[in-house]
């Protein structure tokens, strides 16, 4: 489900002004269900090679994307197996699962 986002999106999406903030070369090392509605997304080190703003947008895109799946309400991030703090849309760092509510300012257009 993250493949298109990691690949940068489709040309049609780019024509509409949509783009992926996931750093080029980022791969998914694994996705594990930790709890009834929380998953952990383990990404390669390339994910951490971006600006703070870029990582915030990338995390928001991933949270919105995987939250479309059934029974996914929160996402924990790991980079090469190590926990990675996330930030909400107010740039507050947290080690708790991130949800779409944490990124309300980045909600996709309806």
Low-confidence stretches: none
Number of strands: 6
Chain-averaged pLDDT: 86
How large a portion of the residues is in β-strands, by DSSP E? 15-25%
Architecture overview:
Helix content is 23%, strand content 23%. The model has no long low-confidence stretch (mean pLDDT 86). It starts with a helix and ends in a 16-residue tail after the last strand. It has three helices and six strands. The strands form two sheets. Strands 1-2-3-4 form a four-stranded mixed sheet, covered by helices on one side. It is globular and about 35 Å long. The protein is of the alpha+beta class.
Brief characterization of the structure:
With 110 residues, the protein is of the alpha+beta class. Helix content is 23%, strand content 23%. The protein is built from three helices and six strands; from the N terminus they run H-H-E-E-H-E-E-E-E.
